[in-house]
Design a protein that fits this description.
Elements lengths: L1 H15 L11 E4 L2 E7 L4 E6 L1 H15 L14 E8 L10 E7 L4 E6 L6 E5 L2 E11 L8 E7 L4 E9 L2
Protein name: Lipoprotein
Length: 169
């Protein structure tokens, strides 16, 4: 009887605490033709990277779809964009003003540093729990030569996440 009670209790506890897929963070993943390795997850974040060539292809495809001429009005930084996806259990912790992105080359030279601005996070409800999420975009205005590191600082919890972006395209 005791075993059955423990079994039922464990099934109930773990069945109610199912973690959504977007909150599971892999050690390595692909992002728009680049490989990203998570060295350290200090917080619930994930990064994406779009190189200038990917951004140019997207702009060209968009112009073709919209049946307009390509214009030079599209802003494409020399080093592309780093996208920070933030996930949190509270609205305040998902506010980008409490996050900082630092991009460095592999020798430790800083290419860009950006702290977010006050924003209101988006939310989703899964399994009766509210999850907050936000997006912070960091332009890398210097040309990126080879692989690079991205550090994400959670200024509320004083945690740092570290990623290595390996360029494949």
């Amino acid at each position: 009887m005791r075993f059955i009670s423990l079994f039922i209790l464990s099934v109930f506890m773990f069945g109610c605490v199912t973690v959504p897929e977007y909150l599971k963070y892999p050690e390595q993943y692909e992002s728009y033709g680049s490989n990203i390795s998570a060295v350290n997850y200090g917080s619930s974040v994930k990064i994406e990277y779009k190189s200038p060539s990917i951004l140019e292809t997207e702009a060209r495809d968009d112009a073709k779809l919209r049946r307009v001429k390509e214009s030079g009005e599209v802003y494409i930084p020399q080093g592309g964009f780093v996208y920070l996806n933030i996930h949190s259990s509270t609205i305040g912790a998902a506010d980008t003003q409490y996050w900082e992105v630092i991009v460095e080359d592999m020798q430790g030279n800083e290419l860009v540093r950006r702290q977010g601005e006050p924003t209101v996070a988006y939310y989703t409800i899964e399994h009766g729990m509210t999850f907050w999420y936000n997006l912070m975009v960091t332009p890398v205005d210097q040309e990126v030569k080879g692989n690079f590191k991205v550090f994400v600082n959670d200024l509320l919890l004083k945690n740092q996440s570290e990623f290595i972006v390996t360029l494949t395209k």
